[in-house]
Each structure stands twice: as structure tokens, then as C-alpha cells.
């Protein structure tokens, strides 16, 4: 689950000057990572999730084709479940990752996740401030 401070940050750092602090751009209140030993496994996971009859995929980011500024590569899906009869839904996020990406992320020799987070936050600030 994302932290509350992350949600506030995402709503405050919208690039939409007309609608600041709206939360409709928060897609990862619930999130997870599925780790695969091969890229074929990642593809199978993508097909399984996107083809499931009770899952509605809202967005796909293929970061194997275009990695993040920090070099992170995965397939990220935002989705919700079809079964909410009252119309409410919570957008969830799942990252489909190769095991080697997780290994590098955890390895302090390469800076680890903390260093990646700093870089990502600086990049997002740059985008919002339009530098």
C-alpha cells in the first residue's frame, strides 16, 4: 500500500493548474510487484492479468521499451476489479518485473532503492516546475 504522504505528493504535484489537489491521478493506493525469472514469464503474467474477465486494465506502461529516468524497467498495469456493483472502484497497480531488476534495486552497491527514489523525486519536481 502506498503511503499517505505519497498520495498527497501526487495530488499536490499535478501538472494541471486548473485542478490542483484532485486525487484522480492516484493509481496506486494498493500496489504490488510480481517477479519473474524470464521475460517470457513477464509476458505470460501480462496476458493472464489483462485477459482475466474480472479485471479492467486502465493503463499499461511498458518500461522495458522506455525505462524510467532511473533505469527501472518493467511492465506496470493500473487496473480495477469488475465486481464492485455499487460503482465504486479502487485503482490498483501491479508491476511485472524481471528478477534481475529486483536484485539490482536491492543491491546497495548500485545505490539501491533509496538512491533511485531520490532521483525519481528530483525528476518529478523538475517536470512540475517545468525546468
Structural description of this entry:
- The model has no long low-confidence stretch (mean pLDDT 78).
- The protein is α+β, with helices and mostly antiparallel strands.
- The protein has a four-stranded mixed beta sheet with strand order 1-4-3-2.
- The chain contains four helices and four strands.
Salient structural properties:
flat, alpha+beta, 4 strands, single chain, 4-stranded mixed β-sheet, 131 residues, 4 helices
Write the layout of secondary structure elements.
Blueprint: H1 4-12, E1 30-36, H2 39-50, E2 55-62, E3 75-81, E4 92-98, H3 99-106, H4 112-128
Parallel strand pairs: 1-4
Antiparallel strand pairs: 2-3, 3-4
Summarize this structure briefly.
The chain has 131 residues and is an alpha+beta fold. The protein is built from four helices and four strands, in the order H-E-H-E-E-E-H-H. The chain is flat and about 40 Å long.
Order of strands across the widest beta sheet?
Answer: 1-4-3-2
The number of helices is 4
The string of secondary-structure elements, in order, is HEHEEEHH
- The chain-level mean pLDDT equals 78
Low-pLDDT segments, ≥5 res:
none
**Rg result:** 16 Å
Q: How many individual β-strands?
A: 4
Shape: flat
**Class from helix and strand fractions:** alpha+beta
The percentage of residues in β strands lies in 15-25%
Helix content: 25-40%
Distance between the termini: 31 Å
